[in-house]
Design a protein that fits this description.
The protein has four helices and eight strands, in the order E-H-E-E-E-H-E-H-E-E-E-H. The protein is 25% helix and 33% strand. The mean pLDDT is 93. The strands form two sheets. The protein has a four-stranded mixed beta sheet, with helices on one face. The protein is globular, with a radius of gyration of 17 Å. Strand 2 and strand 3 form a beta hairpin. By secondary structure, it is of the alpha/beta class.
């Protein structure tokens, strides 16, 4: 099987509020809004994020029964510090500080209004010592 596209879904009792978070803070645009089902995407990206109302017939009852999210969605951005500052200025609490990892990421975690974890990642050069210790040479 070769999927033609990829999408993720946030299940929530507040679809409009969750969609507004992604529109405001991640510059995503609403492409479909049925009230109980909202899709957001950035421009002509090949992925989308669906937001579906908890308890809707399209959501398995076992999923609707869950209240805590353990999913992590990653967003690659140009400047993690700039995004972190904008979120903080808008009153959104970050879950972690912005840190630079030796494997080549500068990132932080934040949660959307439903509690979905977001890893906001800026790609940076990996630490040469980390690369030497962890990446096999040809």
């Amino acid at each position: 099987m070769q999927p033609a596209a990829f999408g993720a879904t946030v299940v929530t009792s507040r679809p409009a509020e969750v969609a507004a978070f992604y529109v405001q803070h991640f510059d995503l645009q609403i492409t479909i809004d049925l009230g109980w089902f909202i899709c957001v995407r950035r421009g002509d990206a090949s992925w989308e994020l669906a937001i579906t109302e908890r308890g809707h017939a399209s959501v398995p009852p076992a999923v609707s029964a869950l209240k805590d999210s353990t999913n992590i969605f990653g967003f690659i951005v140009d400047d993690a510090d700039k995004v972190a500052s904008a979120l903080t200025e808008a009153g959104v609490s970050l879950e972690t500080e912005v840190v630079t990892e030796p494997w080549g990421q500068r990132h932080f975690f934040v949660r959307d209004p439903e509690g979905t974890w977001l890893d906001v990642i800026q790609l940076v050069a990996p630490d040469p010592d980390w690369l030497a210790a962890n990446m096999p040479t040809s």
